[in-house]
Amino acid sequence: MTSVKGWAGALLGVAATTVLFAAFGQLQPGWVWLGAVAMAPWLAAVDRAPSARGAVGLGVLLSVTFTAAVFGWFPGAIAAYSRAPVWLCWGVFLLIAPVLELQFLTAAWVRWYSRRQVGEAPSLAWVPPVLTALAYVGTEWFTPKLFAETLGHGLYASETLRQGADVAGAPGLTLVLLLVNECVVSVAQGLASRRSLRLGPVVLAVVLAVSGWGYGRVRLGQVRAAVHSAPSLVVGAVQANITNIEKLAAEQGTYEVVRNILDTHYAMSDALLRSAPLDLLVWPETVYPTTFGTPKSEDGGALDDEIRAWVAERGVPLVFGTYDLDGEREFNAAMFLGPSATGELAQAAYRKTMLFPLTEWVPDAVDTPALRAWLPWTGRWKRGPGPRLVDFRLNGGRVLKVAPLICYEALFPNYVAAEVRQGADLLLTLSNDSWFSGTPAPRLHLMHAAFRSIETRTAQVRVTNSGISAFIDPAGTWTSELEDNQRASTVMRVPAADRLSSLAGAWGDWLGPVTLVLAMVLGVWIRRRGLERSGRVPV
């Protein structure tokens, strides 16, 4: 690849994979097949790299182009939030891209290294492709990723293929797609060298595709059979689309803004109550933008009492986003107000644990006055105690076991699985995606939430400030959808369903550590074989 022609071919491979990723990431049914070939141009380019530096360089380049093409909406959103220059946000974002997408670097290096170790031995031709796929998936599990994205998420557009996520989550789908891409590369390289068609990779690709489709069809049938026709829960969801609360507070005053928020939600909720009998009302994350139950002023205490009185008068339990205070520690919280065993109004809080770095939470080790002065927009919330259920009493005495999730928490399979294993009847997600309104982010966030329902086979009610709110069934299909940047409310009828077990629900994100260990073992093995072949280690 030292020639101009070689570099041009390598850059073309990176560009082709980037374009294919961007199309595959649109989550459109017509583009699902692109997942089988999206990585192939880049993998072929890495195979032609003459050195480890060249291979890793292609990994760095793809990490940057992938980040720009798939998450190009993020720097603008951060600039709006932090009021920093857009060019600075873009610069920092692309600078850290190789860290956020480290799987491209490790896969490139491992691929180059393994090919060097196995040489031209036909019996070991399988090692570099398998090791590349294992290292890719293992690295994604091991390293931090702001958006927890993986190649397998693109299969959400296929109702059948996405059902395989209940085995090993979206990373399991990624592993299968990587192996299919490796088959495509092998066949293409064979044809390019004018050899006969390599039937082995063709057969393997067909087996993987048919197995994934067949498993999905069987599992989808089981999920549909487990769902009953009658609803077990009727939920009223309110999406008021009131955004830029801090700006409004600066212009109108905090009390006036909170007054408007509450009045709007009261009115929209009353309209829902007139349209249908409800078991539960849900308002989104931080809809009550102050502490509840521990007021900071007399006005705050009066508003707290007003909410309690409103719930008691309507006789319908309410869940809403607010802040919870414990001494000087403040938490992003979901507040549950409903009847108690004695008939009085009971209150319970769930505190958000998985906080978005910097904007919501700063680790104590780096939380200094200098950092706060430099980045005044950094968040001050504290982390909650971890995944837990809330036993929420409904009218009539029924106790609903709710697995609460607040915004960012829906991205973490292990966290959600831990809640469901405690016996959850329902996933209940409160979110505020208003900072990303008008971008692909709200739909991508909804897609992540849908994978949590597939993995755990648990229905989910998702209510957001500005969209997208939806009901998600155990097959990951969303309905009762309230679009982005829309003021609306809806009634979500949650059907009763028999509990279906799943490996991903029982073990969480188990595939990542397994692939990482297997990659290390396979790497050590080929290293030893390479040393034996060179005569440096006795056989």
UniProtKB/TrEMBL annotation:
GO terms for biological process: lipoprotein biosynthetic process. The chain crosses the membrane at residues 7-24, 30-46, 58-81, 87-110, 199-216, 507-526. One of its GO terms (molecular function) is N-acyltransferase activity. GO terms for cellular component: plasma membrane. Its main location: membrane. Keywords: Acyltransferase, Cell membrane, Lipoprotein, Membrane, Transferase, Transmembrane, Transmembrane helix. It is a multi-pass membrane protein. Pathway: Protein modification; lipoprotein biosynthesis (N-acyl transfer). InterPro entries: Apolipo_AcylTrfase, C-N_Hydrolase, C-N_Hydrolase_sf, LNT_N. Residues 238-496 form the CN hydrolase domain. It comes from the Bacteria. SUPFAM superfamilies: Carbon-nitrogen hydrolase (SSF56317). Its EC number is 2.3.1.269. It is found in: Cell membrane. The keyword ATP-binding does not apply. Catalyzes the phospholipid dependent N-acylation of the N-terminal cysteine of apolipoprotein, the last step in lipoprotein maturation. Belongs to the CN hydrolase family. Apolipoprotein N-acyltransferase subfamily. This is Apolipoprotein N-acyltransferase.
